[in-house]
Design brief:
The structure holds three protein chains of three kinds.
Chain A lengths: L3 H8 L9 H13 L3 H8 L6 H32 L7 E2 L1 H7 L13 E4 L5 H9 L3 E3 L4 H10 L6 E3 L4 E6 L13 H6 L2 E2 L5 E2 L2 H14 L6 H18 L3 H11 L3 H15 L18 H10 L11 H15 L2 H18 L1
Parallel strand pairs in A: 1-7, 2-5
Antiparallel strand pairs in A: 1-2, 3-4, 4-5, 6-7
Chain B lengths: L2 E7 L2 E7 L2 H10 L11 E7 L10 E6 L9 E2 L3 H16 L3 E11 L2 E6 L6 H9 L4 E4 L2 E5 L5 E2 L5 E4 L1 H7 L11 E4 L2 E6 L3 H5 L7 E9 L4 E4 L2 H10 L4 H4 L1 H13 L2 E6 L2 H16 L1
Parallel strand pairs in B: 2-3, 7-14, 14-16
Antiparallel strand pairs in B: 1-2, 3-4, 4-5, 6-7, 6-8, 6-9, 9-10, 11-13, 12-13, 15-16
Chain C lengths: L8 E4 L5 E5 L5 E5 L4 E5 L3 H7 L5 E2 H11 L7 H13 L3 E3 L1
Helix pairs in contact in C: 2-3
The chains are: A alpha/beta, B alpha+beta, C alpha+beta.
Chain lengths: 346, 286, 96
């Protein structure tokens, strides 16, 4: 039993007619654990489901709708605070999906607001937000310095009355990471939504999702991230035949080619994303590589109680993901300081 | 998880899994006769804090669909409390099908009485007593208000009695309705009281609220009229999911506040509290 | 050449953005749909918001609209400006 149960339900909602009660129970727990219950609920909408399941899915859809409204409002309040600066404000992640009405936003759980602004204007942006009711979260001096120097975003700000956080990014990956996407180009090629907010171009949205799938954590949330990529690729692919070529071209330019290709292989395998195979200009073979299988193993690692399993693979991914963000000597120093602080507070 | 139990409480189905046998055995005894749902809406897991803590100084971390990451683990002896806290967490953090109020609910003549107040203000004891005095016990922790028609839905979990309240209820209910005595818990000594047979048998029967009381223990007896706005604000503070529900929550709560009479009551002993409740019910709800 | 600072102009949300429930004691429960926030308000907030339905306005213009619709015993543009700022901070109106 693994999260494969969830994947199958998402890809082929009609197949759930054959699920036993125990399997439904497991599916619900796994979907919650993977932050995909809203997406699943929309995929199952309209099917004849056992009554307890229909109740749960209806509540999940209602909950996703509330998250969508809150996310849009958060974006609007950020827009109002930043409008006097006349600076591009590019929405990222879930908020971008719902603001643009993309399929990837349907049923999506959305937490904090993530925006991208030009690096040169980031201090002004922070000041404007602080003046409009956001506050810095109290962090110790080390973490604060770590954020400002090494990360691709400000330390998070929180709006105390609304109890929502905003992450202001100036690029999509930490400056210490090896891939170096060109944030200025991404901002220049943004798509305006017509209300003062913008989103990344289709290729850049997918590149961002793939970059964070592998570089940003130990693949936690990977199934959801790949579901985003599946929905995005399908929608963009339908609009524009050349979208995959453009995507891979931009990905290589950002030195994220292998990440994007791996994401496409995984999403093709899991969610049957109709990724065309190319063998001429570059090689995109859709068959899984041996290391892809290790990623799959980690992505599907949930049991019927919703618990993460196979912890050896998970730890390996955690160390690997930190290695992707920081050169080894910095990583050793960072981990040493973190360990020292956790010892002191124990 | 090797040890587990499926438990239906009102309209909500739980499954509780545990690394240890004892908490599940205690839960099964306390909730004997409750239906076992085939499909669980919420999962609670009682897990070792770290793998070794399963056997050495066993310590239970409460996990499940919804968790509080900083919550302190509990001793194995308090496994039943951990399971109850786990179920409360799932409701407080994850339940969206009804408007949730921290309130006790009791039914008589097809109408519901709601007692709203913070934990420890005596509402649990009052609710348990009323449950032995001709009222159907619908719950002491959460009142579930229907989002479409405003009816209160029963959620009759075992009543968690603390310290002196245990002695009070021991005079009212037979010994076989009590769970084990749990000493030295973070909240003192606790014993759980199982609801009566009729409360369990009729757990799927909702009732429209007809009276809302805000009881306060330890004062000279008094009844105060409350303005609707004050009632509304107090209830938003007493709800864990009002904000998350959005407009349907607003609609349900404003319907409740406009349609149901509300009073704040102060009382200094339970006997007079019950008399006060009965009088106000006759005057305002019957 | 320095310009005279213009007073801020405020805009309400489109019709249908607010859901109001009047209570017996003159207070009003207000649900603001775009932000999903709930407010408990009293006069003159509902009247202020209704007066902005005609279109965006600054404090002086709004005072004029209110005077035309209601009897105002104490028409104080400065106090009105403060109320509007409070509403903007609460997200109920937007400052243009």
């Amino acid at each position: 039993m693994s999260a494969r149960l969830l994947v199958t339900a998402l890809v082929d909602p009609g197949s759930t007619i054959a699920l036993s009660s125990a399997q439904w129970t497991a599916l619900i727990a796994i979907a919650r654990a993977e932050q995909l219950i809203g997406s699943l609920a929309y995929r199952l909408d309209g099917l004849a489901l056992p009554e307890p399941v229909e109740n749960i899915m209806a509540a999940a859809r209602a909950s996703a709708e509330q998250q969508r409204l809150r996310a849009l409002w958060e974006a609007e309040m950020a827009r109002r605070a930043l409008a006097p600066l006349a600076v591009p404000v590019v929405l990222l992640k879930g908020t971008a999906f719902v603001a643009a009405g993309l399929d990837a936003g349907v049923g999506r759980s959305i937490g904090d607001l993530d925006i991208l602004v030009p690096r040169a204007r980031i201090d002004e942006a922070e000041a404007a937000l602080l003046g409009a009711g956001w506050e810095r979260i109290k962090a110790d001096a080390y973490d604060d310095a770590y954020y400002r120097r090494w990360m691709h975003e400000l330390p998070p700000l929180i709006h105390v009355e609304r109890d929502r956080m905003i992450d202001v990014h100036h690029t999509i990956l930490p400056p210490t990471a090896r891939p170096k996407p060109d944030a200025a180009r991404m901002i220049a090629e943004r798509i305006e939504l017509g209300n003062g907010l913008a989103i990344l171009s289709p290729a850049d949205i997918v590149i961002h999702a793939a970059a964070h799938l592998f570089a940003d954590g130990d693949l936690a949330g990977g199934l959801r991230n790949l579901w985003d990529i599946d929905r995005l690729c399908r929608e963009f692919g339908e609009r524009d035949e050349g979208s995959y070529l453009r995507l891979v071209e931009e990905a290589y330019a950002a030195k994220l080619g292998p990440h994007v290709l791996r994401a496409l292989r995984l999403t093709h395998h899991l969610y049957a994303t109709p990724v065309p195979a190319y063998h001429q200009a570059f090689r995109l073979a859709v068959e899984l590589t041996p290391s892809d299988r290790l990623f799959l193993h980690r992505l599907l690692a949930r049991d019927a109680w919703g618990r993460p399993i196979r912890s050896v693979t998970r730890f390996g991914f955690y160390v690997r993901s930190h290695a992707l963000r920081m050169p080894p000597h910095l990583l050793a120093r960072h981990l040493a300081i973190k360990w020292w602080k956790s010892r002191r507070s124990a | 998880m090797r040890h587990n139990l499926a438990l239906q409480v009102g309209d909500v189905g739980f499954r509780v899994g545990s690394a240890w046998r004892a908490p599940i055995a205690a839960l099964r005894a306390l909730y004997a006769g409750y239906p076992e749902p085939a499909i669980a809406e919420f999962t609670v897991r009682l897990e070792p804090e770290r793998p070794l803590r399963r056997w050495v100084r066993p310590s239970i971390a409460i996990a499940g669909d919804y968790t509080l990451p900083e919550a302190a683990p509990l001793a194995l002896a308090h496994g039943l409390l951990a399971a109850e806290m786990g179920m409360n967490l799932q409701m407080a953090l994850g339940h969206r099908r009804h408007l949730l109020l921290h309130a006790a609910a009791l039914e008589r003549d097809g109408k519901a009485l709601l007692l709203s107040g913070v934990s420890g203000a005596g509402k649990s004891t009052l609710a348990a007593l009323l449950g032995e005095r001709g009222w159907r016990f619908m719950g002491d922790e959460f009142a579930l208000i229907d989002l479409t028609d405003g009816r209160a839905h029963a959620f009759p979990r075992a009543v968690s009695l603390k310290n002196e309240s245990v002695a009070v209820m021991a005079r009212e209910a037979k010994p076989d309705r009590f769970g084990p005595e749990l000493r030295n818990t973070p909240k003192g000594t606790i014993r759980h009281l199982r609801p009566r047979g009729d409360a369990i048998a009729r757990m799927r029967e909702p009732a429209p609220p007809a009276l809302l009381l805000f009881p306060r223990f330890g004062e000279t007896e008094a009844v105060r009229l409350l303005g609707s706005a004050e009632v509304f604000v107090r209830l938003t503070q007493a709800s864990t999911n009002y904000v998350a529900l959005g407009e349907p929550g607003f609609a349900a709560l404003s319907r409740l506040v406009r349609g149901v009479p509300a009073r704040a009551i102060d009382y200094s002993d339970t006997k007079s509290a019950i008399a006060l409740v009965e009088r106000l019910w006759r005057e305002l709800a019957a | 050449m320095p310009s005279i600072a213009a007073t801020p102009t405020y805009r309400a949300d489109p019709p249908g953005s607010l859901r109001m429930v009047a209570l017996e004691d003159g207070l009003v429960l207000l649900f603001h749909r775009p932000s999903a926030t709930t407010h408990v308000v009293a006069s003159p907030v509902p009247e202020l918001l209704a007066a902005l339905d005609e279109g965006p306005a600054d404090a002086t213009t709004l005072l004029g609209r209110l005077a035309a619709r209601h009897d105002l015993d104490d028409p104080d543009a400065a106090a009105l400006a403060e109320r509007l700022e409070e509403l903007a901070a609460a997200g109920l109106v937007a400052r243009l």
